[in-house]
Design brief:
With 919 residues, this protein is an alpha+beta fold. The protein has four domains: 206 residues, no CATH class; 179 residues, no CATH class; 232 residues, no CATH class; 218 residues, no CATH class. Helix content is 55%, strand content 14%. It is a multi-pass membrane protein.
Amino acid sequence: MIDSSIVWRMALGNLRKHWKETLLTVFAGSIGAILIAISFVNYTSVQQSGKDWMETRLGPIDWRIVPENPDSGEFTTTEIGAIRNRIKQERSFFMLPYVAAEAALVAQEADGGGEGRALKSVMLMGFQHEDAIRADPQRARLWGSGLGDDELILSKRMADLLAVRKGDAVKLVSGEQSLLMRVKDIANEQGLTGYRDSGRFVGNAIATEKTIRMLKGDLKSTSYPAILMGNHDLARSKAGMFYLNEVKYQIQTIKVEYQNKVAKMNLSIIMGLISAVAIVSSLLFMRQSLIMVADSRREMYGMFRAIGMPKRSVGMMFLVEAFILSSLSASAAVIVGMGAGYGLVRLFYQSFSDQLSRMTGEIIPIEPHLTLGGAVIVFGTIFLLLVIVSLMAEAKASRFSVVETLRGETPEEHSGGRPMRYGKKVMLGLGIFMTISHLLMVFVAPPSLEGGASLLWIVLFWIASCCTVLFLAIRMLRLLEKPMIMLLSLMGIPRISAMLAFKYPRVHGGRTYTIGLLFALVMMIVSFTVAITSIVMSSNDVNRVDQTIFGYGGYAVYQHESERTALMNMASEDKGISDKLTGMTYVEPFMISFVKNGAAQAVVPVSEDLLRGPELPLLERSGAFKSDREAWEAVAADPSYIILPSSYLGNTTFFPDVGPLKAGDTFTFPVYENKLRGLKEEWTPVYEKAFTIAGIIQGVAGRIHVSDLYGVTFVNPATVEELKPFGFKWVNQTAKGYVLFRFDHTNISLAQELEKRFILNGFMRFTVPYVNNSAEQLMNKQLSVAFIGFTVFSGLIGLMGLAIIQYRAVKERSKGIAMMRCVGVAGKQIYWMFVVEGFVIGAIGLLSGWAIGATGSRLFIEATMKDQPSYEQGAVNYPHEWILLILTGLLIVSLLMNIAPARAALKLKAADALRMKNE
């Protein structure tokens, strides 16, 4: 029957005749589908941009290995040989020992008349080209062509920045030396031509090892400071590689680190939640629109049935019409949605790219990616969803009585008082079960948010809970009908308006539920997004959590005393550094085991330099001291005092026989030897020391990312010497100590200037935690912009869809309005009927959405709080003020949305409305 030409002609004729209705239905069907397309563009853009970025920077490179103490040695010829022998056994591996230097490149004018463009902070890189061929066999011709000591290989991006071509001259400047070089080749920036050790470099240039060693003044050396490693076996895990007993080195999993950076940029989980709600909204829009189309055709379908047309033919006529509308909606969604996605990716992901680049030296450039294959996938997905909705709408549209239809009765009017059907009871029972399950997830046993399957169930139960709560709220509204009518009458609203306003939702239950659910879904996702954004922005706020080490904003690592002396002398003698500093000291922490079966804690002395700095606040202080300052001074003066880390605060597992220690207590701490123990071996103290707890302080290791300061404990300098024989270092603690520098660390430009001065003096490991964490916070801000922008866009088009349904509802009720006008109902009373009716439905939907949105966001808040230290457990709170403000705003919007249809109803004259046909 679907191939019958008459069915297609009549379907197309209906769409042309009612062209306004067709446009509205296509728009309603494409609303949520647009968000599907936007989500697809966002996901593919992040994935592809991250893949391109990693290919540019790393290519086949997976790891970087450095000597165990990188600042005190390099890989010797013997060690390089040992690693090569192992790689011969692991045939899929490759190694690339390299030397590097920082340089500036200055392009020479072609006519020799002067200098052109210049680039600073270029990483000059040299390696054996035989190793490069094994590492990058796809460009074997480039690496096998040979490279002279006065030649360079540049990436195309670097060549474009310098405005040079193959064969042009470039001056290479490193320190006080300069060389005139020729551009031997220009290659795509990929792998070895895009690699750089850190983000401070703008790019790299490939030279010979001899050239770089000459610039470094170490021409006779044959050692290497680092080795790049990789594995051509794509199935091999990138998380780790082999170890050698005869060579001690640290493995830096740089590819995994890059993958983690890309993962942080991917909002697929949050965007997926928002999109899931948008998809449900879209399907509701389309279903309601198609049902409205069916209602407008009902009289015509009744006439066809009355003259003998089979029910199947009438249903097929509507189905063809619905398929055409679905294809138009899907096409519009792909065109508009993918275009909008392209613009939104550019807007959201590049909002802070310049500022991030200045702070970190590198960012992941997220560029929008659109493909024909992607567009086909999106179109097919959207069309399939809309076809399913069309089949559901056809099943409902074909259920009508010919006699009732010819009399002008609607199914809702005829069945308004019928009891709930068995199928609906089953659905309600399932919904109640899913709601209870959702609440158990929130308040009793929060599930893991990892894994696609578990997340899918969480989202399914979340949306089902919203649907169920709204259904129950609407049913409860019937019980509140009389009190609400009385209350509205006291407010000055005509009683007949209130009575009529409650009659329509009761008779047209399906439409009432749909409109309320749309409001509920909008509020649910808005409240969820605001809560998540609040968490993202407040977590690790650099201005809320101290970013210093004992009041010192920067630090540099050293491995031996001579390096510490050289570092401190340089900082004192370099005016570019010393003039900016207000203090300098050093610490050499070691670990002590005070707790059996527990983690060790770092021990640090309270020195005069520490007391001269800003006062470090205590979480808890002994009552013997009037201020935190007195507590610190007591520890500095008396070996019997100690300041413990926050892990002791309220802890009953450390010393179960004693209970939780608190400030002011005196306790004899056992000191345990650091060694491996058997399962039944007793923990026997090797030393004991009695301390009075002067105070308890918040730890610094987590936010500063320095494991040497884990569980930092402050004692008297004499106590440090007493405990040092029992101290030890963890395997990953390779530093001997830290030189600390005090300056205005919140001044990012000053911190970056100091970093450059340290680099120029040959010290590469100067770190300012505030700058690093500020960059992370700025990245979080960029993600929050994406959250909010996507949700606002979703909410706006959702409300536009609601406006369409309200507009069509007024048009459908034109005859009823005319009849009310004929029997004497005043225009003001009709106006208030529409306002009250729409506002009540909107308010119920918004309040239901707020309740379920709050529980959904709580799941994520609980998951976030699990990773927070105990002393920060109250730092992230539900943003009640913002939610109430948004709820109020949406209530006002719902009120305004109903004013326009109410005024439109008043414009209908009774005589004209009675003559109107359904549109």
